[in-house]
Amino acid sequence: MARATTTYVCQSCGATYGRWQGKCESCGAWNTIAEESVAATGVGGAPVKGGAKAGKTRGRAFALAGLDGANDQAPRTETQVGELDRVFGGGLVKGSVILIGGDPGIGKSTLLIQASARLARMGHRVVYISGEEAVGQVRLRAERLGLTASPVELAAETNVEDIVATLSEGPVPRLVVIDSIQTMWTDTVESAPGTVSQVRSAAQVLIRFAKKSGSAVILVGHVTKDGQIAGPRVVEHMVDAVMSFEGEGGHHFRILRAVKNRFGPTDEIGVFEMTGKGLREVPNPSELFLAGRDLGAPGTAVFAGMEGTRPVLVEIQALVAPSTLGTPRRAVVGWDPARLSMVLAVLDAHCGVRLGGHDVYLNVAGGLRIAEPAADLAVAAALVSSLSGAVLPADAAYFGEVSLSGAVRPVAQAAARLKEAKKLGFTKAVVPEIARGETVEPGLSVQAVTNLSTLVADIAASGVARGKAGASGDD
Q1: What is the pLDDT of residues 95-119, one digit of tens each?
Q2: What's the CA angle centered on 124, arms 131 and 309, to 5 degrees?
Q3: CA distance 90 to 82
């Protein structure tokens, strides 16, 4: 019989303890430590027989290779889902393991069953293992998406040893989808499915299978309330790529973002639109994010941003209103709240824009999440426009990083941002001084600004001029 050892494991971060305690010292979470029994294992994951001494076996020597050898890895296999291949780095790599996380109902299973169907129609063997749904439920989704004719092999199973034994029979699968890793369990761990030990051990078995067989394995993971992938963080370190599938319930589009990728960039995004026939690729997300914007309202500015190698134009919306509270409210959706506080401080200290008695609301239209500091200039323009009531030009795009001194600093890939703005019909761009040397598209006027105070003065002047024009027209 295998000797079982009892440990206490934090279900949030995976830290282990010799005894139970209320608070995890590693992550600070309360009441997350649970008792788990793990069977002692020997070489190759087999249970140890005859106690701990029997597990002390001599290792097996293996051959070493040099750096100048031929690469026997097969080229990437495209899934024929362009946005998915973009985030993967060009397609699926042989023997890779990818972890995809997202909120419940966001469309993870829909995306993967569509990719599986396209791969299967290309002649590859694709296996879809569902641990949460029965085979009939998966077939109903495939019927709704019109994919029933695709030769995808389905199964509803949760034991990883049985899954690996089944996958080892017949041709090597090109793609294996495990939905989800939290439902998988292994015989070597005496705990319930979903616990830290089970998730870690089950993932290790599947990763070992992928590396030995060359199959690409996609693991679907649950997420916590704050959007982090549930389970031990060690699983994210074990896999080759970690993808986050994001989206808001009030919006019809979804974004696949790479968090970690050993075979490609980590700053690419894939944009999909949720329709009645499944997820549809959005090759030009700028048109989607700018659709339906109000051209005559103050407090809106178009930001020319970059997501990986793809330029994306998105509308920044700001609302500045007098506050009746002792501490004005600051609400941000889609941007870094700390970055907003910095821009407000620069406007107050260097530009004379007093917002200490106003509530500030900032929103990135369409639900896109922006992480780059190049949006500082667009945010500042939207804030000043809302406070002064001056309407920004509808055909102008903004980008630039604002420093603490009020200077507008240059940003990378200015030429690609300007090209995207010109393609969508914009005729003016407000950019940092350094961008003046970039290649400018014909018909696009570039206004270079070196200091934020210059931009604030221009917006305020346009608002005053527009007000005088309106007053003279009334007379």
Answers
A1: 999 999 988 888 899 999 999 999 9
A2: 85
A3: 9
